[in-house]
Design a protein that fits this description.
340 residues, Ubiquitin-like (UB roll), alpha/beta, 10 strands
Length: 340
């Protein structure tokens, strides 16, 4: 009975912690979010050994514990707990039966921050930019109020930059800052975007074409060479090419630089199907005809048999049906070999 009580107490103490690598344990009690807990456990998963013969020099225990606690705090901050801290302390008797030298990581997550104000500067105003700004404003509104996780902030920045690049193809974020409103637990995201120069549509470079001609692709163009660049038209062009069902994949992108004449090159990268739909229909005609012939010959044999016609006629129709069926099997095998 005494042994059972001791085992139960040990299990209750161990439930508050999770084994980490080496001599560190994580106190899980302050963490209520399963996703956050899973991320912290993942970081503290057993690592590759360090020391002689491993090619990695071991860190002193104190420095290693401090670095691990800093990393755990960064995991919490990535989930929107922007004031999170993780303290390290030696294990005590209250932590259960732990090996000597064990370090306990105590997380202090604090409260979660949410996205508040998003301030974007640096892009020159113009009618085209103002039109995009309305779209960007709607996108920004969709992030406001969400937890200020690193994933959400990165997605918001990428979303904004993608729309700005519809007008300024080489736009880039040059400065970013995150300010905290501690009283309201809100963030102010500040971004400076350097737009660079506008451009015109330049020469097109095609890659992956085989049976499909350039003329077929250019029929789907929603813009003209020399027209002011608009990234939305590139997206429209890609959707049009995908709708032709001539390609397994389509990618339409702008070059990473603007030419001296102010144009930007366009790259069209496609992967064709082994057979397009039109060719499949045309080349399947012999297969369909041979199957039809086999069906007609078989039907004729059945009619001849039940109508009491000569046996030689019945045998002839049987041979014809088998021959037509064999031809259809050959055509089917050829089609399958071409599609593989």
């Amino acid at each position: 009975m005494a042994a059972l009580v001791l085992l139960t107490i040990g299990a209750m103490a161990g439930a508050a912690t999770a084994r980490a690598h080496d001599n560190m344990y994580l106190n899980e009690k302050p963490i209520a979010d399963p996703a956050v807990l899973a991320a912290m456990r993942s970081y503290l998963a057993p690592r590759e050994p360090a020391g002689p013969g491993t090619g990695t020099a071991p860190s002193p225990p104190v420095e290693r514990a401090r670095a691990d606690c800093d990393k755990l705090a960064s995991v919490l901050r990535a989930f929107g707990y922007l004031e999170a801290k993780v303290t390290c302390r030696p294990a005590t008797a209250a932590d259960g039966s732990l090996p000597d030298g064990t370090i306990i990581a105590d997380p202090l997550p604090g409260e979660m921050f949410r996205v508040g104000i998003i301030d974007i500067s640096g892009v020159r105003s113009s009618p085209e930019v103002d039109a995009v700004a309305a779209i960007v404003g709607d996108r920004i509104a969709s992030y406001t109020g969400k937890p200020a996780t690193s994933e959400a902030l990165w997605a918001m920045e990428s979303d904004v930059l993608r729309h700005v690049r519809d007008i300024y193809p080489l736009a880039a974020v040059t400065q970013r800052a995150l300010r905290l409103d501690h009283a309201r637990r809100l963030t102010t995201v500040e971004m400076t975007i350097e737009g660079g120069s506008t451009a015109t549509f330049g020469d097109m470079t095609f890659s992956g074409l085989g049976r499909v001609s350039r003329d077929t692709i250019q029929k789907e163009l929603p813009f003209r060479i020399g027209q002011p660049y608009d990234g939305r038209l590139l997206s429209d062009f890609q959707r049009r090419l995908e709708a032709t069902h001539l390609f397994q994949s389509v990618r339409v992108v702008a070059a990473d630089h603007i030419e001296a004449d102010g144009s930007i090159g366009i790259f069209v990268v496609v992967k064709e199907f082994r057979e397009n739909v039109a060719e499949l229909r045309q080349d399947s005609t012999p297969l369909a005809l041979s199957l039809l012939a086999a069906l007609l010959a078989l039907s004729g044999r059945l009619v001849a048999r039940y109508a009491g016609m000569p046996r030689w006629l019945q045998r002839g129709l049987g041979v014809a049906s088998l021959a037509a069926l064999a031809v259809s099997v050959v055509f089917a095998a050829m089609r399958l070999m071409q599609l593989v």
